[in-house]
Amino acid sequence: MKTQDSMKPVGTWEVRRRIKIPALVHAADAMAVEDAVRALSGVRNMATDVEKHQLIVRYDASQSAYQAIVEALESAGFPPLDNWWCRFKGSWFEFTDTNARDNAHAPPPACCNKPPK
């Protein structure tokens, strides 16, 4: 597993997500998971922890989305843990990614704080 400092979000729209993957049990599984997620655009860095069955991924939320990562994991044969807490966190991740993407592509604000007359 990489150091936690390399996993801290650096850019404005970068986020870090911890995803529990029950099928992640061997180093070969970790390599397959990393290959599947690395192919997505916007993914900056990732680390797998086989002992905790966990993937930590840092990506640009204006370019990629949590749902795209989940779909890549499922297509590789490593679906995330499916309990109420993980579904709740997944919904929150999708919501915040959508907000970040919308804000990143929003038009620039007005040049001053006074409304036009």
Question: Secondary-structure map with pairings?
Answer:
Elements: E1 14-20, H1 27-38, E2 43-49, E3 54-60, H2 66-75, H3 84-104
Antiparallel strand pairs: 1-3, 2-3
How does this model look, in words?
This is Heavy-metal-associated domain-containing protein. InterPro entries: HMA_dom (IPR006121), HMA_dom_sf (IPR036163). GO terms for molecular function: metal ion binding. This protein has 117 residues and is of the alpha+beta class. The chain has a domain at 4-81: Alpha-Beta Plaits (2-Layer Sandwich), CATH 3.30.70.100. It contains 3 helices and 3 strands, in the order E-H-E-E-H-H. It has helices spanning 27-38, 66-75, 84-104, and strands spanning 14-20, 43-49, 54-60. The protein has a 3-stranded antiparallel sheet, covered by helices on one side. The longest helix is centred in the last third of the chain and has 21 residues, at 84-104. It starts with 13 loop residues before the first strand and ends in a 13-residue tail after the last helix.
